[in-house]
Specification:
- The chain has 13 helices and eleven strands.
- The chain is an alpha/beta fold and 415 residues long.
- The protein has three domains: 143 residues, Orthogonal Bundle (Cyclin A, domain 1), CATH 1.10.472; 144 residues, 3-Layer(aba) Sandwich (Rossmann fold); 67 residues, no CATH class.
- The chain has a five-stranded parallel sheet, sandwiched between helices.
- The longest helix is centred in the N-terminal third of the chain and has 26 residues.
- 35% of the residues are buried.
- The structure holds adenosine-5'-triphosphate and magnesium ion (MG).
- Magnesium ion binds next to helix 7.
């Protein structure tokens, strides 16, 4: 009896890898206490101005999706290794982290330069002051995540790896260079967690903040046996027929009128510049309405036989948009389906670090090959690869530059 129950459970897990993780009474009691406290007592938080319009239920859904993903990742370790008190602390921290992004992820601006974001951070800190899993007071709570194995909050900075030019010495096209920063690392993490839970994500930010670069980077690192991806750039000529065709070329017939991907794979469909399609005289954007229909009902109509429906499975949209371009925002009935995260303009410290790493990488790659002595790469601060170590000694001996010039280049690179 027990065995057949287990078999059935395994089968269900196989059939639906996106089923919510099984949580016990302890976890339930923590979440049931915290949800009304953080959401119920703070209804004004979800009404504050965001980078684009969001709905309250969207905040709750985003929070749940992040909690589910965290539990899916860590539940086995939590249950096996932790005492009840430690488990409670971990669940509290998961809730704080997920709620912070669920409610506060769509505030405009990267730091607390935005008054509303500042207010949110203050309220959030006051609210979790009595919890055992208190978010650190230093800096912004968004700069931290909770590591259940260490049992404490850790700075995202730790996960940012220094850019290293290709070890083989191959030239990399400038547009392909991507320098990880705190912002890109944490948003990459959030999109990964959402795709795992099969929830749609929308990054919203000004031009050139790196939205497309982060999603492209994420798609490149997806495991092909789990996630298949495709990209469509929306523009003012994109209509629902174009979009439907693009999706139909990526899915295959599963059974009857159902289309999707084989063996539980997900089709991550990256829609760039979501708000660019033309707004017609009825105030609608046809591709946006098609997306809404697919997310809400999972169906297309066969364009040659309109009485026929095609059921679409395994499809997940991941999107970006610039709120100052195109139609600015899109139909709220679609927007509410997304977990929305704001993509702030990087501050000057981040920009300097990005430029420094690109310049250092370029010098490491090219100086030795093409120029006979120019810059001492002691300037690139820490040597990042075997190239830079050799290069520094190599160039010092051949360098015709005055020491003041070298010092100034060094100084600029280091900044
Ligand atoms: N962290 C980074 N490291 C290196 N290059 C970056 C980084 N972030 C952005 N870039 C570069 O900046 C440029 C703009 O980035 P991207 O196209 O991703 O911006 P976007 O937010 O999608 O802008 P838009 O709203 O105009 O589409 C690209 O050339 C990209 O390679
Ligand atoms: Mg873009």
């Amino acid at each position: 009896m027990e065995r057949s129950k287990h078999k059935q459970q395994k089968k269900e897990e196989y059939d639906n890898p996106f089923a919510p993780p099984e949580i016990d009474d302890l976890a339930k009691s923590v979440f049931l206490t915290l949800f009304p406290k953080f959401f119920g007592e703070n209804t004004e938080l979800s009404k504050m101005k965001r980078i684009t319009s969001i709905v309250e239920m969207g905040c709750v859904q985003t929070t749940c999706a992040i909690i589910d993903a965290l539990l899916q990742d860590h539940l086995p370790v939590i249950k096996k290794m932790m005492e009840d008190e430690q488990q409670k602390l971990t669940y509290e921290a998961f809730f704080c982290f997920a709620g912070m992004w669920g409610i506060g992820g769509a505030f405009e601006g990267a730091s607390d330069s935005n008054a509303e974001l500042k207010q949110f951070i203050q309220t959030w800190k006051v609210q979790n002051a009595n919890l055992k899993a208190k978010i650190p007071d230093t800096g912004s709570p968004f700069d931290h995540y909770f590591d259940p194995e260490e049992g404490k909050w850790v700075e995202w900075k730790r996960k940012v790896v220094e850019y290293e030019p290709s070890a083989e010495g191959e030239e990399v096209m400038f547009s392909k260079i991507f320098i990880p920063t705190v912002q890109t690392v944490r948003l990459n993490y959030l999109v990964t967690q959402h795709v795992k839970r099969k929830r749609t994500v929308l990054f919203v930010g000004s031009a050139g903040t790196g939205k497309t670069a982060v999603i492209r980077g994420f798609l490149r690192t997806c495991q092909p046996e789990k996630v298949v991806h495709a990209t469509v750039n929306f523009n003012s000529f994109t209509d629902s027929a174009n979009l439907q065709k693009s999706i139909e070329t990526k899915v295959e017939k599963k059974v009857g009128k159902t289309y999707g991907l084989p063996s539980n794979k997900i089709l991550a469909f990256f829609i760039d510049d979501l708000n660019m399609p033309y707004v017609d005289k009825y105030g609608t954007q046809t591709p946006i309405q098609l997306m809404r229909q697919v997310i809400d009902y999972g169906v297309f109509f066969d364009r040659d036989h309109l009485e026929e429906k095609k059921f679409i499975e395994d499809l997940l949209f991941v999107s970006c948009m610039n709120p100052k371009a195109g139609s600015f925002s899109v139909d709220t009935r679609l927007q509410r389906q997304f977990s929305i995260f704001s993509f702030g303009t990087p501050d000057s410290a981040i920009l300097k670090s990005v430029y420094r790493q690109i310049l250092a990488g370029h010098l490491v790659m090219n100086v030795d090959k093409n120029w006979h002595g120019m810059v001492s790469l002691t300037a690139s601060s820490k040597p990042t690869s075997k190239h830079s170590r050799g290069l520094s000694m190599n160039l010092n001996s051949r360098l015709p530059l005055r020491s003041s010039t070298i010092n100034s280049i060094s100084e600029n690179c280091r900044r």
